[in-house]
Task: inverse folding
């Protein structure tokens, strides 16, 4: 099966490529890029006005499978990924049971092979049951295909456990992805400590609860040399700590989410919208500004969604009882294009670094790049599409987005994995 | 004076005039409560649900009596007897109660925002009877009424709150209400008991030294102190709390001659307040607050559901 995409603007900073041309894909690979190409048989699509970029990757998603399939499963989650323009994701291990052994890694990989509309990579847990106590069989999980380790959802409270685990993980070259949350400082924190926690009269989640663990883990990275990736950074000072660690030459990377970039605690009002209850919490306008500066200057390595679907009835609970998290796969690209690219804050090359190139670098995966002979994982964007975020548009089982009603410009229209469309003209295949 | 409100949850929705309307209506209700026949026919045929999913004695009895004295039918749904202990959601509970065509929901709940949530799901009037550490609007109004009756004014009063302001739903409503009425508000306590951002509530001054501010206060509002778990306690012992922040006989000499003491109850004698002060015939307004509670709750229910002025009451 051959595919010819005509008149498409192809952007790939890895190839210093930004030009309008024709692209031929056959047997899952790029065969030819050039002008006025034709194919004897197969599908030809005129893509005038569209942009082709290396397939996007989101290295922080919760597909809830196994154990919480009422919220999401690998099939629905991967369809949401395809709909958002992603060709690959990294699934977090806070499932039930926890992905803390090789059999669980194999389950996800096998299930993904059967039903997924994107490549699903797996992060194993750092500690058994994500309890922060006993190291998991990381070596066995690496053999089964795990590409990273994380206790995402909780920080690892015991510094000695963290150090031992990082020392041990060193042999595999896999990064440790750390959710920084000092439990003894954060407690039952619900929203950012300060104005929001006082206004809503719920427990505060202090910025220091995140920064203290970032600082500790950077020192453990200095000690052990194991690559450290800080998940969902939310505070200006936390980002400064990472900036300094990078300047010191440490193998430290980090990610931010669209909701921490574009929303803050001021959005929380007397309606107690549980879709805005996320962990870590929405911070301040000053933190938004600092994160955007980090996106521009390179301190931030990638934009991830922390896609955290929940059922409607769970999010209909009282604010303090409702679970943390919002979905993100189907809004991320539109938000980044609208808020950062269309406004000139960053260009397409930087967006591609943040959302396609760097996640794979951090996870030591093969690069996905647009060149003859390479695997055809790519995303096609209509930069002029104007749309309004609506739950009716979501393929995810989770409707808990904090961006419902947002007016966006630019979105993915087509997603291809291994040369085959997982989304075509806005419809997941 | 028109009183155009449907629910009473967020005290900041009330204007200065609204609050004075409540106070004047409460005065009329006070007279009713001193009659031999202590009942008005105003709400005959209407149904109130007292949905209390958190323990309460005085607020619950005060509301029940207020409803009965306005001739309202009362259905009590408590946490221990409701389906919520079986895992029913708050939304399902209120929708179930809606099927009875109820007219008023008075609710006490442990979770901030729950009254607004209930109001979104019912046509009945909703009055918060205290939620989480968030708000307790009728307590605020009864306290304003008590101060007004005793001191004759609210504007310009200097009110000091001593103790656990951060976990106090009373403060969540009373401090903004005092600011609406033009009072000056100081909070006093160790930083472990103070709000994350005092300015949000409108607090004018913060002090960690009770003796320094005591001479300036017209009203000393003591807050109930609870010490449940020592490991996470915000102070080391009840003894030390009393030593630093207790309203004691010894500290009385620092108070203005006409300064009064208030407390939302229940009292921890010997902790935040000593018996000498709690029972002080001139200074303590603790029992006045309880009586005010009945009058103010009748007034609030009357204003939300009955008429829009107090002219017809007496």
Result:
């Amino acid at each position: 099966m051959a595919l010819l995409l005509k008149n498409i603007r192809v952007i790939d900073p890895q190839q210093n490529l930004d030009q309008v041309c024709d692209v031929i894909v056959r047997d899952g690979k790029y065969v030819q890029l050039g002008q006025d190409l034709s194919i004897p048989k197969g599908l030809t699509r005129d893509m005038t006005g569209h942009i082709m970029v290396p397939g996007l990757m989101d290295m922080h998603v919760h597909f809830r499978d196994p154990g919480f399939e009422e919220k999401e499963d690998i099939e629905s989650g991967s369809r949401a990924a395809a709909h958002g323009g992603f060709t690959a994701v990294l699934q977090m291990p806070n499932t039930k049971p926890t992905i803390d052994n090789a059999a669980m890694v194999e389950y996800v990989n096998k299930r993904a092979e059967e039903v997924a509309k994107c490549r699903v990579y797996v992060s194993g847990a750092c500690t058994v049951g994500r309890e922060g106590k006993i190291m998991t069989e990381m070596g066995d999980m690496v053999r089964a295909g795990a590409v990273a380790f994380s206790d995402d959802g909780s920080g690892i409270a015991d510094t000695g456990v963290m150090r031992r685990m990082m020392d041990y993980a060193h042999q595999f070259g896999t990064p440790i992805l750390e959710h920084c949350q000092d439990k003894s400082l954060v407690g039952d924190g619900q929203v950012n400590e300060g104005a929001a926690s006082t206004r809503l009269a719920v427990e505060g989640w202090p910025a220091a609860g995140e920064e203290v663990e970032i600082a500790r883990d950077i020192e453990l990275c200095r000690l052990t040399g194991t690559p450290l990736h800080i998940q969902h950074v939310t505070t200006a000072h936390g980002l400064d700590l990472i900036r300094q660690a990078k300047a010191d030459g440490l193998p430290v990377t980090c990610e931010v989410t669209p909701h921490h970039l574009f929303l803050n605690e001021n959005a929380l009002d007397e309606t107690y919208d549980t879709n805005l209850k996320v962990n870590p919490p929405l911070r301040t306008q000053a933190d938004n500004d600092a994160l955007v500066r980090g996106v521009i200057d390179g301190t931030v390595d990638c934009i991830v969604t922390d896609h955290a679907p929940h059922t409607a009835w769970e999010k209909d609970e009282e604010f303090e009882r409702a679970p943390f998290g919002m979905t993100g796969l189907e809004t991320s690209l539109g938000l980044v294009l609208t808020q950062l690219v269309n406004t000139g804050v960053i260009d397409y090359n930087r967006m591609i670094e943040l959302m396609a190139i760097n996640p794979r670098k951090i996870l030591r995966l093969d690069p996905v790049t647009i060149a003859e002979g390479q695997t055809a994982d790519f995303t096609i964007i209509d930069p002029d599409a104007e749309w309004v975020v609506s739950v009716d548009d979501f393929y995810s089982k989770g409707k808990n987005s904090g961006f419902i009603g947002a007016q966006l410009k630019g979105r993915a229209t087509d997603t291809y994995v291994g040369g085959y469309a997982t989304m075509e003209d806005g419809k997941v295949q | 004076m028109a009183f155009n409100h449907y629910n009473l949850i967020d005290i900041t929705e009330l204007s200065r005039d609204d609050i004075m309307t409540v106070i004047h209506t409460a005065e009329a209700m006070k007279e009713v409560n001193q009659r031999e026949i202590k009942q008005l026919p105003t709400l005959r045929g209407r149904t109130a649900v007292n949905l209390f999913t958190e323990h309460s004695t005085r607020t619950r009895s005060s509301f029940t009596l207020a409803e009965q004295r306005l001739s309202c039918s009362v259905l009590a749904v408590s946490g221990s007897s409701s389906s919520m202990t079986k895992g029913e959601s708050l939304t399902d509970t209120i929708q179930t109660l809606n099927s009875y065509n109820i007219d008023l929901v008075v609710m006490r709940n442990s979770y901030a925002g729950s009254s607004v949530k209930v109001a979104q799901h019912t046509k009945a009037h909703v009055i918060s009877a205290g939620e989480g550490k968030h708000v307790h609007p009728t307590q605020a109004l009864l306290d304003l009424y008590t101060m007004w009756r005793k001191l004759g004014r609210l504007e310009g009063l200097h009110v000091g709150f001593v103790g656990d302001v951060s976990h106090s739903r009373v403060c969540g409503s009373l401090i903004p209400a005092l600011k609406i009425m033009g009072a000056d508000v100081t909070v006093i306590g160790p930083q472990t008991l103070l709000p994350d951002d005092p300015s949000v509530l409108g607090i004018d001054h913060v002090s960690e030294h009770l003796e320094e501010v005591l001479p300036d206060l017209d009203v000393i509002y003591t807050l109930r102190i609870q010490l449940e778990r020592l490991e996470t306690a915000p102070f080391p012992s009840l003894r030390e709390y009393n030593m630093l922040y207790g309203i004691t006989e010894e500290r009385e000499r620092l108070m203005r001659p006409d300064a009064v003491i208030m407390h939302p109850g229940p009292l921890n004698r010997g902790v935040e307040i000593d018996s000498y002060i709690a029972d002080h015939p001139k200074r303590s307004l603790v029992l006045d607050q309880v009586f005010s509670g009945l009058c103010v709750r009748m007034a609030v229910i009357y204003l939300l559901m009955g008429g829009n002025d107090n002219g017809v009451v007496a």
